[in-house]
């Protein structure tokens, strides 16, 4: 009797088939979740007035009055201030791309999520346009293309964080703008959404090559995976209940592999031939940095101190010596550890002039958008910080010290919608946070200087990853004690210098964060300092405060050390060799980043289970006047 032989499974094809199948189902589910504008009712039926609204469109897109009134009625009814309209004939690949980026069920509620849209028409409340600086000449002109509309939608969501939505407008047509954008146009549209055009084009080409390989070499499983990719546009958009009717659906499905290959190649060429404006080396900035560095970096450092700034003890040991791995600016930095109390501090310490130099172009200017993107992806961490207070108090007023661009305050409103959040920081990002409405009032300056003015005005003061940046953390704690009344709460989160990863990764451990971090404080030291100031620690968390970036950060810092950005204005003039080396390191680091992401996931799970991460947070109540 012949034994039954199971068909041989080609695992690469099976994994691709599963991933494509899951993506197809997800896209279909998301499409069904996109609201569809109803036909506009007659004016006599009480359509809300259109006053106070503006409908901005890409060139060639001509909405009629019915679409405009229907959009205004829907936005008023749903409490929206920004509404991106998806034309009913939205091209297939544009629709699929948007559905990959946006989950309509969560889009409005994600206060930190990127603003996304189709890039053809967006309805905006005039007051939002005014606050965003796009009301008079600050927005896209009459000849704007989809890239300009995409950039505007991304910007507007920051000013209407919980009041931005999208909807399908069946009566709206893309018009001439529906045609292919070309390589340069597609690259510009990706960059307008804050996406790396070159990296995405490379990923698409790699994916197409993998599909072709499995289709040719792995029999029916490979053919099934390639076939599912081929038919995906029709499977998602071609059903009888689909609210979108792409005019190019048949062609987009029939010629998908060829079209995708051509689009990826053109985008890769366009992305390689141009760089983002912020990444291009500015001759003026380069000259200014060159003049500033002509006098050397010695003036950026104070004299080395022989004792610990925390406890005053003398025995010190070098913990780590590193260059500036964050930006690649000249200089070398030493962190020393006190053998008596374990406090780790920068020695010699940067002067105020040095701090200004090394912070410049990191959180604002050249690096501002990148920093904002990173902070915008920490929503879950921000909510956990806010939730720490749930068992202890219901705050009416909250001051976030070191608020940066106000991301925490924006996200914390999901937990505390009736709390007034104000922010304080040295940078001008706090002013932008006030303009966007992420904080009620933004104070710009040093916390100890504001303390007398702010005394008794807040029930909660928070310092999330702030103390390690300060020149004198004990003075900052004194300021918090002066501001808070008895019964007030202080929330602090810090990197943990006693983390096992600090020893394992050495100079590549991201939380060393030189040259910005000047003090890394062990948890026992912070508890003692709080007790000295009349605080009682109510809660302490280590695992939940863990930031899952140990291995990913180590790869990023190592790659930056091997091949710094050739276009940095404080570096030498870029050469073809430097650009080639940077490109080669970026390509070689891709699998390292992938492996690091897996390791960080495992490390985060272990940190949660063992309550031992790379950071800790404390909540303390002030009990002594």
From TrEMBL:
One of its GO terms (biological process) is methylation. The keyword Transferase applies. InterPro entries: SAM-dependent_MTases_sf. It comes from the Bacteria. This is Class I SAM-dependent methyltransferase. The keyword Transferase applies. It holds the Pfam family Methyltransf_23. GO terms for molecular function: methyltransferase activity. SUPFAM superfamilies: S-adenosyl-L-methionine-dependent methyltransferases. Keywords: Methyltransferase, Transferase.
């Amino acid at each position: 009797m012949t034994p039954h032989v199971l068909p041989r499974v080609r695992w690469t094809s099976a994994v691709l088939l599963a991933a494509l199948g899951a993506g197809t189902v997800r896209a279909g589910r998301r499409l069904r979740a996109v609201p569809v504008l109803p036909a506009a009712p007659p004016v006599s039926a009480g359509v809300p007035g259109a006053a106070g609204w503006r409908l901005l469109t890409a060139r060639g897109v001509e909405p009629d009055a019915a679409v405009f009134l229907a959009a205004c009625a829907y936005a008023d009814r749903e409490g929206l201030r920004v509404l991106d309209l998806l034309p009913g004939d939205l091209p297939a690949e544009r629709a699929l791309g948007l559905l990959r980026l946006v989950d309509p069920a969560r889009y409005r509620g994600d206060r930190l999520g990127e603003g996304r849209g189709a890039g053809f028409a967006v309805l905006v409340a005039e007051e939002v346009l005014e606050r965003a600086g796009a009301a008079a000449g600050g927005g896209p002109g009459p000849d704007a293309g989809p890239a300009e509309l995409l950039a505007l939608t991304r910007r507007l969501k920051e000013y209407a964080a919980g009041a931005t939505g999208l909807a399908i407008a069946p009566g709206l047509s893309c018009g001439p703008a529906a045609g292919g954008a070309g390589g340069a146009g597609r690259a510009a549209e990706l960059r307008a959404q804050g996406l790396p055009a070159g990296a995405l084009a490379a990923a698409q080409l790699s994916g197409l090559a993998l599909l072709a390989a499995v289709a040719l070499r792995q029999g029916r499983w490979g053919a099934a995976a390639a076939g599912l990719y081929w038919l995906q546009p029709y499977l998602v958009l071609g059903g009888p209940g689909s609210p979108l009717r792409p005019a190019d659906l048949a062609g987009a499905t029939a010629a998908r592999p060829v079209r995708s290959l051509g689009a990826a190649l053109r985008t890769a060429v366009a992305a390689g031939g141009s760089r983002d404006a912020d990444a291009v080396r500015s001759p003026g900035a380069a000259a200014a940095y060159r003049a500033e560095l002509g006098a050397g970096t010695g003036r950026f450092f104070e004299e080395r101190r022989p004792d610990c700034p925390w406890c005053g003890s003398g025995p010190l040991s070098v913990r780590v010596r590193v260059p500036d791995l964050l930006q690649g600016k000249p200089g070398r930095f030493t962190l020393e550890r006190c053998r008596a109390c374990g406090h780790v501090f920068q020695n010699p310490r940067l002067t105020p002039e040095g701090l200004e130099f090394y912070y410049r172009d990191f959180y604002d200017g050249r690096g501002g958008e990148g920093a904002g993107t990173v902070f915008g992806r920490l929503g879950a961490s921000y909510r956990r910080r806010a939730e720490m207070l749930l068992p202890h108090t219901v705050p009416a007023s909250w001051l976030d010290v070191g608020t940066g661009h106000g991301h925490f305050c924006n996200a914390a409103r999901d937990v505390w919608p009736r709390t007034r959040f104000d922010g304080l920081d040295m940078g001008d990002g706090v002013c932008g946070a006030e303009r966007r409405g992420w904080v009620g009032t933004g104070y710009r300056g040093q916390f100890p200087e504001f303390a007398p003015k702010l005394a008794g005005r807040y029930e909660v003061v928070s310092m999330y990853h702030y103390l390690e940046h300060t020149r004198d953390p004990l003075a900052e704690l004194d300021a918090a004690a002066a501001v808070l009344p008895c019964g007030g709460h202080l929330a602090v989160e810090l990197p943990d210098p006693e983390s096992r990863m600090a020893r394992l990764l050495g100079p590549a451990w991201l939380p060393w964060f030189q040259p910005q971090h000047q003090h890394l404080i062990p948890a026992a030291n912070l508890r003692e300092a709080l007790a000295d100031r009349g605080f009682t620690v109510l809660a302490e968390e280590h695992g939940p405060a863990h930031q899952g970036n140990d291995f990913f950060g180590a790869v990023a810092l190592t790659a930056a050390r091997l091949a710094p950005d050739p276009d940095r204005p404080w570096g030498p003039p870029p050469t073809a060799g430097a650009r080639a080396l940077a490109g080669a390191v970026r390509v070689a680091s891709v699998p390292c980043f992938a492996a690091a992401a897996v390791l960080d996931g495992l490390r985060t799970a272990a940190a949660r289970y063992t309550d031992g991460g790379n950071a800790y947070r404390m909540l303390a109540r002030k009990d002594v006047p």
